[in-house]
Amino acid sequence: MPNLQGVRRRIKAVKNMRQITKSYKLVSASKLRRAQERVTATRPYARKIREVLHNLSATVTDFTSPLMEERTGNRTLLVLMTADKGLCGAFNANLIRSVQQYIADHPSERIELITVGRKGRDFFRRRTVPIRKEYINVTAKTFGYDVAVSIAQDIMDIYEGVATEEDVLAARPDRVLLVYAEFRSAISQVVRIEPLLPVGKPAAGPSDAADAPAAGPDYIYEQPPAEILGRLLPRFVETCIFQALLESVASEHGARMAAMDSASRNAGEVIANLTLTMNRIRQAAITNEIIEVVSGAAAL
User: Fold this and answer.
1) What is the annotated localization of this protein (predicted)?
2) Domain at 216, CATH number
Protein backbone atom coordinates (compact mmCIF):
# COMPACT_ATOMS: atom_id res chain seq x y z
CA MET A 1 0.00 0.00 0.00
CA PRO A 2 1.47 3.42 -0.94
CA ASN A 3 2.38 5.88 1.79
CA LEU A 4 -0.36 8.44 2.49
CA GLN A 5 2.12 11.28 2.97
CA GLY A 6 3.88 10.40 -0.30
CA VAL A 7 0.58 10.51 -2.22
CA ARG A 8 -0.25 13.91 -0.72
CA ARG A 9 3.14 15.22 -1.83
CA ARG A 10 2.50 13.97 -5.37
CA ILE A 11 -0.92 15.62 -5.45
CA LYS A 12 0.59 18.94 -4.35
CA ALA A 13 3.37 18.67 -6.95
CA VAL A 14 0.93 17.91 -9.77
CA LYS A 15 -1.30 20.84 -8.70
CA ASN A 16 1.68 23.19 -8.85
CA MET A 17 2.55 21.82 -12.28
CA ARG A 18 -1.01 22.38 -13.48
CA GLN A 19 -0.82 26.01 -12.40
CA ILE A 20 2.32 26.43 -14.51
CA THR A 21 0.78 24.80 -17.59
CA LYS A 22 -2.36 26.93 -17.24
CA SER A 23 -0.22 30.06 -17.05
CA TYR A 24 1.70 29.04 -20.18
CA LYS A 25 -1.58 28.41 -21.95
CA LEU A 26 -2.93 31.88 -21.10
CA VAL A 27 0.31 33.59 -22.16
CA SER A 28 0.42 31.67 -25.45
CA ALA A 29 -3.25 32.44 -26.12
CA SER A 30 -2.55 36.15 -25.71
CA LYS A 31 0.52 36.04 -27.97
CA LEU A 32 -1.29 33.88 -30.51
CA ARG A 33 -3.99 36.49 -31.00
CA ARG A 34 -1.44 39.18 -31.86
CA ALA A 35 0.61 36.83 -34.04
CA GLN A 36 -2.49 35.71 -35.93
CA GLU A 37 -3.44 39.32 -36.61
CA ARG A 38 0.03 40.00 -38.06
CA VAL A 39 -0.12 36.91 -40.26
CA THR A 40 -3.58 37.80 -41.57
CA ALA A 41 -2.53 41.38 -42.28
CA THR A 42 0.62 40.48 -44.25
CA ARG A 43 -0.72 37.61 -46.37
CA PRO A 44 -2.48 39.84 -48.97
CA TYR A 45 0.70 41.90 -49.44
CA ALA A 46 2.85 38.78 -49.85
CA ARG A 47 0.36 37.37 -52.35
CA LYS A 48 0.25 40.58 -54.38
CA ILE A 49 4.02 41.13 -54.55
CA ARG A 50 4.40 37.53 -55.71
CA GLU A 51 1.77 38.03 -58.40
CA VAL A 52 3.36 41.27 -59.65
CA LEU A 53 6.82 39.70 -59.70
CA HIS A 54 5.65 36.71 -61.71
CA ASN A 55 3.80 38.91 -64.20
CA LEU A 56 6.86 41.12 -64.66
CA SER A 57 9.26 38.19 -65.03
CA ALA A 58 6.99 36.71 -67.69
CA THR A 59 6.96 39.92 -69.77
CA VAL A 60 10.53 41.19 -69.28
CA THR A 61 12.91 39.12 -71.39
CA ASP A 62 16.03 41.32 -71.45
CA PHE A 63 16.70 41.21 -67.69
CA THR A 64 19.10 38.89 -65.88
CA SER A 65 19.82 38.61 -62.17
CA PRO A 66 21.80 36.16 -60.00
CA LEU A 67 18.63 35.66 -57.97
CA MET A 68 16.89 34.24 -61.07
CA GLU A 69 19.80 32.15 -62.30
CA GLU A 70 18.92 28.49 -62.75
CA ARG A 71 21.79 26.23 -61.70
CA THR A 72 22.27 22.52 -62.23
CA GLY A 73 24.56 21.72 -59.28
CA ASN A 74 23.73 19.61 -56.26
CA ARG A 75 24.22 22.18 -53.47
CA THR A 76 21.06 22.91 -51.48
CA LEU A 77 20.65 25.43 -48.68
CA LEU A 78 17.75 24.82 -46.27
CA VAL A 79 16.48 27.73 -44.18
CA LEU A 80 14.99 25.99 -41.12
CA MET A 81 12.71 28.03 -38.85
CA THR A 82 12.13 26.50 -35.42
CA ALA A 83 11.34 27.91 -31.98
CA ASP A 84 13.81 29.15 -29.39
CA LYS A 85 11.85 27.46 -26.58
CA GLY A 86 10.21 24.11 -25.98
CA LEU A 87 6.90 23.13 -24.36
CA CYS A 88 5.11 23.41 -27.70
CA GLY A 89 4.26 19.79 -28.40
CA ALA A 90 5.61 18.31 -31.61
CA PHE A 91 6.17 21.69 -33.28
CA ASN A 92 9.98 21.57 -33.35
CA ALA A 93 10.13 17.80 -33.79
CA ASN A 94 7.97 17.92 -36.92
CA LEU A 95 10.17 20.57 -38.53
CA ILE A 96 13.38 18.73 -37.70
CA ARG A 97 11.91 15.45 -38.88
CA SER A 98 10.94 17.04 -42.20
CA VAL A 99 14.52 18.22 -42.75
CA GLN A 100 15.87 14.77 -41.90
CA GLN A 101 13.39 13.20 -44.31
CA TYR A 102 14.43 15.61 -47.06
CA ILE A 103 18.09 14.75 -46.47
CA ALA A 104 17.28 11.02 -46.62
CA ASP A 105 15.26 11.47 -49.83
CA HIS A 106 18.05 13.42 -51.58
CA PRO A 107 21.29 11.55 -50.83
CA SER A 108 23.05 12.99 -53.89
CA GLU A 109 22.65 16.61 -52.75
CA ARG A 110 25.15 18.49 -50.61
CA ILE A 111 22.87 20.06 -48.03
CA GLU A 112 23.69 22.98 -45.73
CA LEU A 113 21.53 24.78 -43.21
CA ILE A 114 20.64 28.24 -42.05
CA THR A 115 18.88 27.84 -38.71
CA VAL A 116 16.45 30.37 -37.28
CA GLY A 117 15.68 29.33 -33.72
CA ARG A 118 17.62 27.65 -30.94
CA LYS A 119 15.96 24.21 -31.16
CA GLY A 120 16.94 23.55 -34.77
CA ARG A 121 20.43 24.95 -34.16
CA ASP A 122 21.01 22.74 -31.12
CA PHE A 123 19.77 19.60 -32.86
CA PHE A 124 21.79 19.86 -36.07
CA ARG A 125 24.87 21.17 -34.30
CA ARG A 126 25.36 17.61 -33.03
CA ARG A 127 24.82 16.14 -36.51
CA THR A 128 26.92 16.06 -39.66
CA VAL A 129 24.88 18.67 -41.56
CA PRO A 130 26.93 21.91 -41.79
CA ILE A 131 25.31 25.12 -40.57
CA ARG A 132 26.20 28.20 -42.64
CA LYS A 133 24.56 30.76 -40.35
CA GLU A 134 22.40 30.70 -37.24
CA TYR A 135 19.92 33.13 -35.71
CA ILE A 136 18.69 32.72 -32.15
CA ASN A 137 16.25 34.76 -30.04
CA VAL A 138 14.87 36.30 -33.23
CA THR A 139 11.25 35.42 -32.42
CA ALA A 140 11.54 35.59 -28.63
CA LYS A 141 9.83 38.99 -28.69
CA THR A 142 7.93 41.07 -31.21
CA PHE A 143 10.18 41.64 -34.22
CA GLY A 144 9.93 43.99 -37.16
CA TYR A 145 10.51 43.86 -40.88
CA ASP A 146 14.15 44.82 -40.38
CA VAL A 147 14.87 41.35 -38.96
CA ALA A 148 13.58 39.73 -42.15
CA VAL A 149 15.65 42.20 -44.22
CA SER A 150 18.83 41.20 -42.37
CA ILE A 151 18.20 37.45 -42.77
CA ALA A 152 17.16 37.83 -46.42
CA GLN A 153 20.28 39.87 -47.22
CA ASP A 154 22.51 37.16 -45.73
CA ILE A 155 20.70 34.50 -47.76
CA MET A 156 21.02 36.49 -50.99
CA ASP A 157 24.72 37.13 -50.31
CA ILE A 158 25.32 33.42 -49.77
CA TYR A 159 23.36 32.53 -52.90
CA GLU A 160 25.29 35.05 -54.99
CA GLY A 161 28.61 33.96 -53.45
CA VAL A 162 29.30 37.34 -51.85
CA ALA A 163 29.42 36.16 -48.24
CA THR A 164 32.34 33.75 -48.60
CA GLU A 165 36.06 34.26 -49.19
CA GLU A 166 36.43 30.78 -50.66
CA ASP A 167 35.99 29.76 -54.27
CA VAL A 168 32.69 31.48 -55.09
CA LEU A 169 31.42 28.95 -57.62
CA ALA A 170 32.17 26.03 -55.29
CA ALA A 171 30.76 27.58 -52.11
CA ARG A 172 27.50 29.14 -53.23
CA PRO A 173 24.36 26.95 -53.18
CA ASP A 174 22.40 26.09 -56.31
CA ARG A 175 19.00 26.46 -54.65
CA VAL A 176 17.52 27.74 -51.40
CA LEU A 177 14.48 26.15 -49.73
CA LEU A 178 12.38 27.47 -46.85
CA VAL A 179 11.33 25.02 -44.11
CA TYR A 180 8.71 26.46 -41.78
CA ALA A 181 5.31 25.73 -40.23
CA GLU A 182 2.34 27.30 -41.96
CA PHE A 183 -0.32 28.52 -39.54
CA ARG A 184 -3.77 27.13 -40.19
CA SER A 185 -5.39 27.33 -36.76
CA ALA A 186 -4.49 27.04 -33.10
CA ILE A 187 -4.48 23.24 -33.40
CA SER A 188 -3.31 22.87 -37.00
CA GLN A 189 0.14 23.71 -38.35
CA VAL A 190 1.48 22.32 -41.62
CA VAL A 191 5.21 21.93 -42.32
CA ARG A 192 6.18 23.49 -45.65
CA ILE A 193 9.35 22.98 -47.69
CA GLU A 194 9.15 25.52 -50.49
CA PRO A 195 11.66 27.01 -52.94
CA LEU A 196 12.91 30.53 -52.27
CA LEU A 197 15.79 30.92 -54.73
CA PRO A 198 16.16 31.07 -57.66
CA VAL A 199 13.13 33.29 -58.17
CA GLY A 200 11.15 32.69 -61.30
CA LYS A 201 8.32 30.21 -61.24
CA PRO A 202 5.05 30.80 -59.35
CA ALA A 203 5.93 28.01 -56.91
CA ALA A 204 8.49 30.21 -55.12
CA GLY A 205 7.79 31.82 -51.78
CA PRO A 206 5.72 31.02 -48.70
CA SER A 207 2.41 29.26 -49.00
CA ASP A 208 -1.10 30.65 -49.23
CA ALA A 209 -0.34 31.88 -52.74
CA ALA A 210 -2.99 31.83 -55.41
CA ASP A 211 -2.00 30.53 -58.82
CA ALA A 212 -0.79 33.28 -61.10
CA PRO A 213 -3.22 34.16 -63.89
CA ALA A 214 -2.48 32.88 -67.38
CA ALA A 215 -2.35 36.39 -68.85
CA GLY A 216 -1.01 39.11 -66.57
CA PRO A 217 -2.30 42.68 -66.49
CA ASP A 218 -0.96 45.28 -68.89
CA TYR A 219 1.16 47.50 -66.64
CA ILE A 220 2.05 51.12 -67.35
CA TYR A 221 5.73 51.62 -66.45
CA GLU A 222 7.24 54.89 -65.26
CA GLN A 223 10.71 53.35 -64.91
CA PRO A 224 12.04 50.67 -67.27
CA PRO A 225 10.55 47.26 -66.45
CA ALA A 226 14.01 45.78 -65.93
CA GLU A 227 14.80 48.42 -63.30
CA ILE A 228 11.52 47.75 -61.48
CA LEU A 229 12.15 44.01 -61.55
CA GLY A 230 15.68 44.48 -60.21
CA ARG A 231 14.34 46.40 -57.22
CA LEU A 232 11.43 44.04 -56.72
CA LEU A 233 13.49 40.84 -56.50
CA PRO A 234 15.24 41.62 -53.16
CA ARG A 235 11.97 42.94 -51.74
CA PHE A 236 10.27 39.70 -52.76
CA VAL A 237 12.87 37.59 -50.92
CA GLU A 238 12.53 39.81 -47.84
CA THR A 239 8.75 39.46 -47.93
CA CYS A 240 9.00 35.67 -48.19
CA ILE A 241 11.27 35.53 -45.14
CA PHE A 242 9.08 37.93 -43.16
CA GLN A 243 5.91 36.01 -43.98
CA ALA A 244 7.54 32.68 -43.08
CA LEU A 245 8.72 34.13 -39.75
CA LEU A 246 5.23 35.34 -38.93
CA GLU A 247 3.72 31.98 -39.89
CA SER A 248 6.29 30.17 -37.74
CA VAL A 249 5.68 32.38 -34.69
CA ALA A 250 1.90 32.00 -34.91
CA SER A 251 2.27 28.24 -35.34
CA GLU A 252 4.59 28.05 -32.32
CA HIS A 253 2.15 29.87 -30.05
CA GLY A 254 -0.77 27.79 -31.33
CA ALA A 255 1.13 24.55 -30.74
CA ARG A 256 2.22 25.66 -27.26
CA MET A 257 -1.32 26.69 -26.31
CA ALA A 258 -2.70 23.32 -27.44
CA ALA A 259 0.10 21.41 -25.68
CA MET A 260 -0.36 23.28 -22.41
CA ASP A 261 -4.13 22.80 -22.54
CA SER A 262 -3.62 19.07 -22.99
CA ALA A 263 -1.08 19.02 -20.16
CA SER A 264 -3.51 20.82 -17.84
CA ARG A 265 -6.24 18.30 -18.60
CA ASN A 266 -3.86 15.40 -18.04
CA ALA A 267 -2.76 16.91 -14.73
CA GLY A 268 -6.41 17.11 -13.65
CA GLU A 269 -6.85 13.41 -14.42
CA VAL A 270 -3.69 12.53 -12.47
CA ILE A 271 -4.93 14.57 -9.50
CA ALA A 272 -8.29 12.77 -9.59
CA ASN A 273 -6.60 9.35 -9.67
CA LEU A 274 -4.21 10.26 -6.87
CA THR A 275 -7.07 11.63 -4.77
CA LEU A 276 -8.94 8.36 -5.21
CA THR A 277 -5.83 6.45 -4.17
CA MET A 278 -5.40 8.70 -1.12
CA ASN A 279 -9.00 8.13 -0.04
CA ARG A 280 -8.57 4.39 -0.38
CA ILE A 281 -5.44 4.50 1.77
CA ARG A 282 -7.24 6.54 4.43
CA GLN A 283 -10.22 4.21 4.35
CA ALA A 284 -7.95 1.18 4.70
CA ALA A 285 -6.19 2.79 7.67
CA ILE A 286 -9.52 3.58 9.37
CA THR A 287 -10.73 0.05 8.75
CA ASN A 288 -7.57 -1.39 10.29
CA GLU A 289 -7.98 0.81 13.36
CA ILE A 290 -11.61 -0.29 13.79
CA ILE A 291 -10.58 -3.94 13.46
CA GLU A 292 -7.86 -3.46 16.09
CA VAL A 293 -10.32 -1.80 18.49
CA VAL A 294 -12.93 -4.52 18.02
CA SER A 295 -10.32 -7.26 18.35
CA GLY A 296 -8.99 -5.70 21.59
CA ALA A 297 -12.46 -5.39 23.02
CA ALA A 298 -13.25 -9.01 22.16
CA ALA A 299 -10.00 -10.15 23.76
CA LEU A 300 -10.91 -8.41 27.01
Assistant:
1) Cell membrane; Membrane
2) 3.40.1380.10
